[in-house]
Fold:
Amino acid sequence: MARAVISRDIEEAVRLLKAGSVVALPTETVYGLAGNALIRDTVMRIFKIKGRPTFDPLIVHCKNAEDAFRYAVRIPSAAIRLAEKFWPGPLTLVLNSTRKIPSEVTAGLGTVGLRVPSHPLFHQVLEALDFPLAAPSANPFGYVSPTTARHVSDQLGHLIDFILDGGPCLYGMESTIVGFEKNVPVVYRLGALPLKKIRQVAPDVTVKIHASSNPKAPGQLSSHYAPSKKVLWANAAPSSVLEDRLTAVLVFGPSPEVKPHCHIMNLSSTGDYHEAARNLYRLLREFDAGPWHTLVIHPIPQDPEGWSDVLNDRLERAAAPR
Ligand code: TXA
Ligand code: MG
Structure:
């Protein structure tokens, strides 16, 4: 197959999606690998292109809350409040699914992850369609999520025809996933919507982030968002590694303490957490593509909004044993 076209042609994206194709689309979080969520064959193709195990369900993207709630039943009042406040935006709600959603999308869990993205191009595509879009992040399973069209093309360009170019993603971090247990909101994945903001709407929210696979959020595997080369926490890195020219070090803020001969990658030299989130996946990819054999990482210092928790969660998974 020829390589995917990278283009800003929304009408072409719409045409391909209507024809049942799988295309990459930009969202405000990361790029997604999208197809008609109501057609089993298209959904199965998404799993195949991504190399994703079928036990790991897909998020269904809808044009607005009203449309999204058509695919859910017994919706808790807290879910409605969260949707009113944070949709369109980087929030995924896991709700009881209607039968309109094929079991392939939900991995047979009986629940469906629903999201209304705020990216203007993704939104325009959804407005032109009369079906919702299933879309995981547009990367091979377990690898770093893509935050530019080029990232998608680098890895999946030979497997898809079309990538809609929306420039670099605004957040650069996946959506926050919230499910409900006995109608109480539970965060299953930390993400671009800070926990603190969720608390303002749902003060009883709890957090259940798992290091390993778990039935409530099957994609939360301990090794995930991971480059293909070695990633080590600084406190576990032997001094020989720290003194090696072919070691890269991922740091944050204006005054990182690192050995002079290592290659320094700064998430944000001004200590801006949003910038760090936008840069993390890009830098992990640069590390993988460059000459370095090891990436040494440091924990991100705590901030009031909770971005450090999200960034440290991703670093933890990037460094987890494979
Ligand atoms: O920001 C995002 O959420 C991006 C963009 C493209 O929307 N999408 C994304 O999708 O990150 P993906 O497939 O890479 O991660 C979705 C996560 C997976 O870990 C999956 O297990 C979880 O959402 N998920 C989806 N449906 C679920 C469900 N019914 N119950 C529990 N977890 C669910
Ligand atoms: Mg993903």
Q: What stands out?
A: Residues 136-137, 145 surround magnesium ion (ligand 2) (CB under 6 Å). The domain at 5-207 is CATH 3.90.870.10 (DHBP synthase).
